[in-house]
UniProtKB/TrEMBL annotation:
Residues 4-140 form the Saccharopine dehydrogenase NADP binding domain. This is Saccharopine dehydrogenase. InterPro entries: NAD(P)-bd_dom_sf, Sacchrp_dh-like_C, Sacchrp_dh_NADP-bd. Residues 144-391 form the Saccharopine dehydrogenase-like C-terminal domain. It comes from the Bacteria. It holds the Pfam family Sacchrp_dh_C.
């Protein structure tokens, strides 16, 4: 019996809202707050159409998530127990500030990054630990799939399979086809900034930096395909190597097709991926913001999307029996099936469902303590159980090394 605010109205917010509506015994009242209220209204209309028996009460409002006083006003007027932040990563800190001022719990799916610097790390949000502890509030960071479920998988490895994890590889494959020449599966600005940045991985107690997409290998994704995969830097590595100090090497891999990389190289070559503002007809605009405006919105890809996603975590190390071990925990989702269920493509679905699950565990007291936390700091079992219940079945593969 809880009231929550969802901030944002993109593809992930759409999934979070609809999964909250399915889980109406926990989420009794939901306010969707966003800069563009017509998008929130469209989500609510779809809920009424596709989930007419849900008892969850929905409403919408306008909010500027960059504006703390405006956020505080909306939160105080609605009186939620927590805020689910699925807005832009640039807005994490203002929303955390508003939660502290109003005394409500906080959850997001991506860590903070400054708008004018292509850099993301947890230090800005970890700096809030003492303030949330003193306020008796909880902030759960990065509770999507990657980050999010991938850290749960790592904690599950540690709890059930390993005395020590030595080598960790997180793999993310989208083997889908949306029929567009070039499009991104989530916010284009965030997606392109992430891919064009230098890669980074952890090895022997330090970070090793690479050129963008410099390291690759063919990886077999169970039930899906063998795909060329590239090393990127991804935020969950930062917390995992702290919380699992026996890790000697940790890497994150993602698949990209040749056509995608070719388009990206051309766009980068002509300066369209730059975050540096230029003067255009008397106005300042970053080329990447203009590019975002002309590319298809990620949520618009859903209706015609086919194929599957496969995201998992391979761990190698010392098993519970004292022997060397390799184990893989993963999920496979189908774009057409996720569209049938919640009118969303699989990338939005795999991010939105874990956000709902994390919020549910917080609201029901299963995961609940004051402070700022990453998901691997909690018992993974209730989260795994909920994934199986709420549309993200978890599979395991023992003894086969998929990533070299």
């Amino acid at each position: 019996m809880s009231k929550v605010i969802i901030i944002g109205a993109g593809g992930v917010a759409n999934v979070v809202a609809k999964k909250c509506a399915q889980n109406d015994s926990v989420f009794t009242e939901v306010l969707i707050a966003t800069r563009t209220v017509r998008k929130a209204d469209a989500i609510v209309a779809e809920i009424h159409e596709h989930l007419p028996n849900s008892q969850t009460k929905f409403s919408t409002t306008t909010v500027d998530a960059d504006n703390v006083p405006e956020l505080v006003k909306v939160i105080r007027e609605f009186g939620p127990e927590m805020v689910i932040n699925v807005a832009l990563p640039y807005q994490d800190l203002t929303i955390m500030d508003a939660c502290l001022e109003t005394g409500v719990h906080y959850l997001d799916t991506a860590n903070y990054e400054p708008k004018d610097v292509a850099k993301f790390e947890y230090s800005w949000q970890w700096a809030y630990r003492e303030r949330f502890e003193k306020a008796g509030l909880m902030a759960l960071l990065g509770c999507g799939f990657d980050p999010g479920a991938t850290q749960v998988f790592t904690a599950y490895h540690a709890k059930h399979h390993f005395k020590e994890i030595h080598y960790l590889d997180i793999v993310d494959c989208n083997n889908g086809d949306h029929g567009k020449a070039f499009a991104t599966n989530f916010n284009p600005e965030i997606n392109i900034r992430e891919i064009t940045a230098n890669g980074r991985y952890w090895e022997n107690g330090q970070w090793v930096e690479t050129a963008p997409l410099e390291i690759s290998q063919d990886i077999y994704y169970p039930k899906v395909a063998t795909r060329k995969s590239f090393v990127l830097y991804h935020e969950e590595l930062e917390s995992l190597v702290i919380n699992f100090p026996t890790i000697k090497r940790a890497r994150f891999w993602m698949t990209f097709g040749e056509a995608y990389i070719k388009h990206l190289n051309v766009l980068e070559g002509i300066g369209m991926t730059s975050i540096e503002p230029i003067d255009f007809k008397g106005q300042q605009i970053a080329p990447i913001e203009f590019l975002k405006a002309v590319l298809p919105a990620p949520e618009s890809l859903a209706a015609n999307y086919t194929g599957q996603t496969c995201i998992g975590v391979q761990a190698k190390g010392l098993g519970k029996d004292g022997e060397d071990k390799v184990h893989f925990v993963y999920n496979v989702s189908d774009h057409a099936e996720t569209y049938k269920e919640v009118q969303a493509q699989g990338v939005s679905y795999t991010t939105g469902v874990p956000a709902m699950i994390g919020a549910m565990l917080m609201l029901t007291g299963v995961w609940k303590r004051a402070g700022v936390y990453n998901v691997e700091e909690f018992d993974p079992d209730p989260f795994i159980t909920a994934m199986n219940e709420w549309g993200l079945p978890v599979d395991e593969l023992a003894g086969i090394e998929l990533v070299k």
